[in-house]
Request: fold
Amino acid sequence: MGRVTAICVSGRRGTQKDAVKSASFSTQWGIDGDAHGGAWHRQVSLISADSIGKFNDRGANVAPGAFGENLIVEGIDFRSLAVGTLLGCNGVILEMTQIGKQCHNHCRIYDKVGDCIMPREGVFSKVVQGGVINEGDEMTILQRAQPLPWQAAVITLSDKGARGEREDKSGPLISERLKAEGYDVLEQIVLPDDRTALEDTLIRLCDQRQPDLILTTGGTGFSRRDITPEATIAVADRLAPGVAEAIRAASMAITARAMLSRGASVIRGKTLIINLPGSPKACAESMDAFLAVIPHGLELLRGEGGDCAAGNTVISNS
Reply:
């Protein structure tokens, strides 16, 4: 259980927010009058009052809203919670959607202290149920009545696709197949065949948005620009070669050229990353080989499954 020690809003992005005594939260939008409201996943930002306190002990002397945060909460370590966690406060329900963020430009706090905690200590959420939050209100962590749907992201690797010279057909096909299987597709991205760009994107997705599954398409062949397996393995914590082996085995029954695919399958954090070929037909055939099997592995990565394949326990909100 925690307590809201400050509520901060601003009408323009990229500026310090001003503290207010209360704020109205609109479902699937955010805080009324705040610039970060909208139909996206970072509607409301939160940070622990304890983190700010430790930062100020180093001489930062930051006031509420200095990090661009919306809610400062005492007594909850947001960094220890998983994406998908539900937070309740005076009838408002927030769902955590991202942990930390990329800092592209150093802020005034960084220039002063040489550090900023928001990129690693701040978290983001969307408003599941609206209402009013007041300074001093209690915030609690809610138990889900139903399991969080599987979360996924799709990345297409294509130089021409990234330049707008070729329509991406594989990415949308993968996304629609995942949605039909009950997955929430958080992001669908097209990147050039650039190893650094792919590594950075995989790290951002796994560490901040924490999807259960990332599927890449393209860049698995013998061309010098085919860098997808190398980038994927570079960011891995652990290998999961069986999935890639199953894809190649199934594809070999269709075409002998499947032996030329270098696609990898790995784990980073709690995310399974699988490389698929570039063509829509090959993507569909590859997904046939693993899509029905991997939910058990995803349960294990979430810490929900086990050898006995026990189901999720449904607990009412408290």
Observations:
- The longest helix spans residues 195-209.
